[in-house]
Amino acid sequence: QVQLVESGGGLVQAGGSLRLSCAASGSISGINVMGWYRQAPGKQRELVARIDTGGGTVYRDSVKGRFTISRDNARNTVYLQMNSLKPEDTAVYYCYVQKYGIDNWGKGTLVTVSS
User: Fold this and answer.
1) Which terminus, N or C, of the chain has the lesser number of Cβ atoms within 10 Å?
2) From the CB of residue 89, how many other CB atoms can be counted at a distance below 10 Å?
3) Pick from 30, 18, 10: nearest CA to 104
4) pLDDT in tens, 49-105
5) Sheet holding 18-26: strands in order across?
6) Whole-number pLDDT of residue 18
7) Mean local confidence (pLDDT), 1-20
8) Does residue 24 contact residue 2 with C-beta atoms inside 8 Å?
9) What is the predicted pLDDT for the residue at 23?
10) More confident residue, 23 or 1
């Protein structure tokens, strides 16, 4: 079992920045991909960014150039630096890790961007 604890969400004005963190613990051997999804009210959950063990990254188009994902393998932690935030970035952000093809999810952290 993998436990994921997210932190760093909150309320920020448009144009501001936030940094999300997600620490993995428990049965962490075999984790390859770490990343973030988000879900806005009334919408489906969508991938924001993910990073593999080699540092390869994938971003959704709407956050490219504004968000940066990184990971610290020694600390089993993934980060999401979010700059130039927009009201449409408002959502619950969920950390996930993929281990042997199975996704494990955090409980989510709320990010609210005011206009």
Assistant:
1) N
2) 22
3) 30
4) 999 999 999 999 999 999 999 999 999 999 999 999 999 999 999 999 999 989 999
5) 2-7, 18-26, 77-82, 67-72
6) 98
7) 96
8) yes
9) 97
10) 23
Residue 86: which residues within 8 A CB-CB, separation 6 or more? 14, 113
Give the Cα separation of 108 and 37 in Å (integer). 9
Q: Are 38 and 109 in contact (CB under 8 A)?
A: no
Query: What is the SS3 assignment for 53-94?
Result: CCCCEEECHHHCCCEEEEEECCCCEEEEEECCCCHHHCEEEE
Exposure on the CB side of residue 77, measured as CA atoms within 13 A:
14
Tokens 């940066």 appear where? Answer: 68
Amino acid at 34: M
Cα gap 22→72, rounded to integer Å: 10
Q: Are 51 and 71 in contact (CB under 8 A)?
A: yes
**Cα gap 52→109, rounded to integer Å:** 22
pLDDT at 80: 98
